[in-house]
Amino acid sequence: MSNLTVQNLILHFENRLRQIDRHTLGNTAGKEPQFPMLVVFLGDEAIKGFSSIASNLFEIWPQYQRELQFVGVTNKGSSVAYVQLSFEENEAQESQISSDDISNIVTSLFGLKNHFQDRSKLFVYFILDTTSYKSAEEFSTWMDIIQQTKNAFGIDSLDMLDMLIVLLNENFSRKSISNQIRNKLCSFHEDPKLLSNCKSIFLLSNKRSDHAILEDWNICYRIAISIMALSNNSDANISTSLFSRRVLTASYAREEKPSEKIGQVIVTALIDEMTKAFVQHEMHLFEDDSISERLGLTKDGTITILDNYAQNVLVPLLPSASQLALFPRVSMDEYDDVSQLSAREFNSLTMSSWDSYLSQVAHQAQEKVNMDSKIRQNWRKEYLTYLCTQFSTNELIYLSDHIDDVREIINHKREPSQEMQVLSAAKSRLKYMLSSDPKLIDIFLSAIKEQGENAREFLQAWRELLQSRQNIFAIRDDNITAFYERKVRNYFDHYGHELTEEFKKMQDAESLKLFLENSLDKIVDSNPVFSAPFEEELERRLHEEALPTDAKQYIRQKLTGEDVRTYLQVNFNFGQPVLSSILIKVGTPLYNNLYSNLAPTTYYYNTGCGNAAEAAVVYEVSKENLINGESR
User: Fold this and answer.
1) Higher pLDDT pick, 97 / 332
2) Measured in Å, how far apart are the chain's first and last C-alpha atoms?
3) Residue 94 and residue 83 in contact, taking contact as beta carbons nearer than 8 Å
4) Per the domain annotation, does 455 fall within a domain?
5) Are residues 101 and 179 in the same domain?
6) Last residue of a domain, one of 461, 488, 512
7) Cα–Cα distance for residue pair 407/415, rounded to 1 Å
8) Domain housing 68
9) Residues whose CB is less than 8 angstroms from the CB of residue 185 and which lie 6 or more positions away in sequence, other chains included
């Protein structure tokens, strides 16, 4: 059964907006990684961040999904184990590898099939999460493992630039361990082990400068991704400032199109609209006078699909009117035209050889069908399609649950009259015999059961989809809700009937999933606001609600104002930034606004993504700000 939930539909919506932004807004590609790079996750806690970090890196560099490499390292006490991390059908996968495999992975990064512009250096980013540490000595242990892992790369240290990104858990219960780790980092410039293990240390804490403690690492993952993008850069000045044998940290802010909230409004409205069409009636199917016709039976009770086969294949085998005279007869008396005799008369005249002939034609046809799976499959496919046009989801389930009653209806057919002219009666007789064959009847009964199971899956998927709505939080932004509810209502006013009719034809979970995803795509394509850069989307929304806020000024304030937090709490001011950066799609109105209003020393990294803008300001962390790390 398809994994159909409101959350996954919202994700599909977000991906669609991202795809439009990447391919249609000026078709502007962002910067690409300059050097081959490897991301190494140290320990089980760090490995948990792979999915988030990798997927967000791929948002910046979508064309490098097959070229960026990720490795996980675990410490088993007496031994170190390695795993290669990757995605398979959007699911994170771990594959056990050896140290030799790591060397092969590194070697592959320098191959001609990859598209890195400069192969003179390998950039390595080690990610260390201290959440599960029992003591600060584990930090020292991982420093040894880093060196062991670097040795496995098989590459000269002069050809490598490495950065250690430390995710420092400073929860109250971990205060002692985190303070000890900070004290260890104080000796970065004197500790030969630290100096040899990394060119730079980036320290990110879950305790922000405003004393807030993060529940998860998602924001710090975002910062780490920004630092990776900034440092793996064709601009040597930027790379040098970030690989400079210092302990660094950063303030960070991100403003983006509220795609998830927009998606929630649209998905919820779509489900509500389709729910109106999902009406369940009390079942009285077998009391319906048209049930036989809806099951694909003729007025004589034969199966229409088999009748068509008989008409096209068997009827042409019947003798002509003149050939009937060649059949052996009980009497050689002259008849003007035996074809004018009734079937009963002609069969009596031919001593039942006529009935034997018809039985033989029907039997040979039945044998042929039983041996030809293609014919059976075609009939089954045709009948499955027909059923979808005749019965609702609940009716199909009802039929499959009462298959013996359906069999009785199919078996209840009218035997052709023997008083018709012989050839006319023969045509009806052949059709009757085909539709009386239990094996052929089972083809259609099994199709009903299959479609009933499909319908049951559909119904279950629909119920689970409705149930999944309970797992999403209400949107607390009336502006977004009101604005997009109007947009989707306008779409339904134009196309709601068409959507509803298509929805009524859905009979299985997979087709339901495709229908809902396609409907979301059509809604996105129906209004340019969905494809607008996020600052334009905000401006339109504020304008329609008659709100006075200037969108670009609002975003600039959010990215660079006094409320932007640093992701490390310290005792003293940091001093001048090592780097002030904006990660944004270059060429957009927002970029032009920021470029005109921010300090000329600000560095702009072109992400090629018009749905978000990020600000990362990098600071050096002095010894004084590392010790204890808490104001007294």
Assistant:
1) 97
2) 57
3) yes
4) yes
5) yes
6) 461
7) 17
8) 32-248
9) 166, 194, 201, 203, 247, 621, 626
